[in-house]
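Lab notebook page, bench 4
Experiment: in silico fold of construct C2
Operator: M.H.
Input chain length: 524 residues
Purpose: comparison with the prior construct
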Amino acid sequence: MKKKQTIRTGQTIAYKLHNGRIVSLSNEIPEGTDVRKIPAGSGEGREIYRRGLILALDQAVKRKFPDARLWVEHSISLGYRCRLLNRPDMTSEEIVERLTWELKRIVEEAIPIETVKYDPDATDDLPGEFLELVSWSSGKRAIRGNRLQDSCAFAMGPSVPDTSWLTKWDLKPLERDFVLRFPGSASWPEIDVWVPRKKLNKEFDLEEKHIARMGVQNIDQLNRRIEEDGGRQLVIMSHFYQTYRMVQIVRQLKKDFPTRRIITIAGPSSSGKTTFARLLRTYLVAQGFGARLINVDNYFRKRSDTPLDSHGKPDFECLEAIHTEMFGEHLGKLLEGGEIRMPLFDFHSGERYDNHTPIKLGEREFLLVEGIHGLNDALTPGVAPESKFRIYASALTQLNIDRITRMSTSDSRLVRRMVRDSTQRGYSAEQTISIWPSVKRGERRNIFPFQEDADAMFNSSLPYELPVLKKYAEPLLMEVPYDSPVYHTATKLLDILDCTNPIDQNLVPITSLLREFIGGSIFS
């Protein structure tokens, strides 16, 4: 038996080649190759660790409950919510107890985890579940999988060399399911205290049920639905459901008016917040209300007063970059029936011009506020929280790549942003991917801590969007140079898209949030 590993923060868990490709420690690296060591506690290192942990859990389920199958759902509180298909007739606590014992055994056995490559002409050695997914690919790409005995998952990157590395984890019962928890960035290699996310978890549950009803829970199922009619029924059902969720929010707003006249909308990058705000405004007008949009960007402090980040550059995403005192004072006057003169911020000069645009709320008007700090009450000092209705809008992707491999919400939004940046801003995929880690850091600081303060959540993700975005994203990703530091990310996304059947963009309604990214929106 191999000696048990002890995970440390700076311990090397994989290698990164000069072109950004990440390879396992078990790979043979030619002498003289320029490589960088990836620490276990880094973002890339933690992903590598989690891939191995999921495979080990899948093996534990197969050993203890041979008739059941593990299904990995969404991410929650530094963990993955998991459920068992064909669940045994016992409590979640009993299931967790047995799986914990078996998972410990698997770690002690130091079972190798290998990388397998799909070859259309040699498939005898590959598990059937893996073949169901990769058989949809063009056959032109070297699609890889990570395999632990008879468990095999689509490779978003390498895994740890063997199960002896997987010493830090926890299984926590949650209702009829359970959560596989792992170390986070701040605490690595320890596991953070469990923080319930009841509202977010409820939203995820609703979306899981929705895609289950449509029969598109993973890419294989999605492709089969597209083969039936080109994706027409899928597009129709997706928008009927989003309309239903929008109507639910409008009904609540109508019920709470005029006590709650300020509607704040916040969410991470590329969530479709702009189109959502315009759709919401249209729905409110149809109910006999008005809705004025106030742009928080106009309340930026002048550039010379903007706080600097750790690199000495202006930090426009921090709350302190906004003149919150003026913003709160203006909202208070509007709620009292007064008139304000909204400032105008000039992004070219970095100057703010006060007393610029007069605004006054009508008798049946809402005030729409869209911005990354919309859920944070510190944005509106002096304004009573009970006078605001806070909406969290995000692309809460529920589509799995395979049974135990999630399509992360971050990757889904990255594909959206990459397409929009190209068509509307002239950016390359390499440029968009390069700044994405910085975007995510800002979201973790300014948005995600306030999710549970939302009065309503809206999922802008559409089950059919990856097949539509495929046409736009693939050519952009193929332009990423082989020696680029973001080549690994580009390759990962190309492999996913290669396994996905396309849907004609002309099927996308002109009112769809997806039009914010591919163009052709009625709101443009």
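Observations: Residues 263 and 389 are 5 Å apart (CA to CA). The first helix runs from residue 43 to 64.
Next step: discuss at group meeting.
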